[in-house]
Amino acid sequence: MPLKMNAAVVEQFGKPLELREWDVPSPRVGQILVKTEACGVCHTDLHAAHGDWPVKPTLPFIPGHEAIGLVAAVGSGVTIVKEGDRVGVPWLYSACGHCEYCLTGWETVCAQAQFGGYTANGGFAEYVIADPNYVAHVPAGLTATEAAPLICAGITTYKGIKQTEARPGEWIAISGAGGLGHLAIQYAKAMGLLVCAIDIDDGKLAHATRLGADFVINAKTGDPAAAVKKATSGGAHGVLITAPSLIAFKQGVGMTRKRGTCVLVGLPPGEFPVPLFDVVANCITIRGSFVGTRQDMAEALAFAVGGKVKADIELQPLSSINQIFDRLEHGDVPSRVVLDFAPAKTKNQRSEVDQHFAKAGAGSARDL
Ligand code: NAD
Ligand code: ZN
Ligand code: ZN
Q1: Which of 61, 99, 233, 255 is the most exposed, fewest CB within 10 Å of its CB?
Q2: Which of 288, 308, 341 is the last residue of a domain?
Q3: Looking at residue 166, which CATH number applies to its domain?
Q4: Strands annotated E in the chain
Q5: What would the pLDDT profile of 131-188 be if each residue is shown by its tens digit?
Q6: Boundary (domain end) residue, out of 245, 269, 288
Q7: CB under 6 Å to ligand 1: residues?
Q8: Domain for residue 366, yes or no?
Q9: Predicted model pTM
């Protein structure tokens, strides 16, 4: 009889997640089993549950790609992590390791890449299987709940800012000041940039100011591209669009300085119009950016250890996932909700699994 865990499962696209029992998975050769301590809730999880994108996950699946936990068991052949290590199970779940992209530090675009909480089950569950070669190594000094948002929202915005090629003292415009954006502001300030934050919610903009944004614009009142151009004397050198809204993309291109770079990170379904003449005549670069590599992960986490970046988190239990999704969809999450699995420790089934590992020792999960 396999042991059971609690999980939030997408059974049908566009429907509430099912809170149900799921077999505790067993790590195969080269895999690890991670006991989830915390998992952030990213807007991507909402896109995944809605089936928003052209390549859809196979139903049923467990979302969540900001999972932090302790290695509970290791499959045979695993040497890179050991039981008890604190790791993160990110969106970049695994890659082939030998294609031209993997070999050149672009494993994020590997054709064989698997995605946590999408093509592989993720962290909205008490246990999650991971590839030890692709987990985040959570540095001492960061708690699980603090680290969770950094392994997607943090790495994605840190990498995206680097991709704008904006240099210290130059302007970056950050469109969307939510889960990704509130971290982007902090990374950008830590990287010596001048920051303009754009959102459609005055509360998020007030928070952006508290986090160090040099000025803020509500995109609902007036023309945000014109406002950025005026405030920066010609446009931002770098633009990072995290807003899950197509209109923000056209506006973002419009606020880019001549020869500047507009980096697209938000992933609302659909297409947006590009003003071709302006982009060509002003030598503007428009660039997509997709999470980050394992090296980006280590760098992004190091900023937090140094205290320069700190995620603003609201802790909630797994059982609240549908209310959290509802709030995320309506822009009612101030920064990041993190599912806190600590209260679940008292549950009978969890302790049953824990006891199993305690008794059987390393590699025990293979017998589950
Ligand atoms: P979120 O809901 O926490 O934040 C989105 C923010 O955008 C909110 O503050 C909202 O008020 C604001 N917003 C909405 N419409 C806007 C507009 N027109 N102009 C300016 N701001 C607007 O979402 P999140 O978790 O930060 O994710 C944002 C997007 O980034 C999602 O589409 C997600 O899928 C995507 N994402 C992409 C990557 C990647 O690797 N490229 C990684 C993670 C997330
Ligand atoms: Zn994410
Ligand atoms: Zn590859």
Answers
A1: 233
A2: 288
A3: 3.40.50.720
A4: 4-9, 18-23, 32-41, 67-74, 86-89, 92-94, 114-115, 127-130, 136-137, 171-175, 194-199, 215-218, 236-241, 256-264, 285-288, 313-316, 336-340
A5: 999 999 999 999 999 999 999 999 999 999 999 999 999 999 999 999 999 999 999 9
A6: 288
A7: 42-44, 47, 152-153, 156, 175-181, 198-201, 204, 219, 242-245, 247-248, 265-268, 289-291, 328, 331, 333
A8: no
A9: 0.95
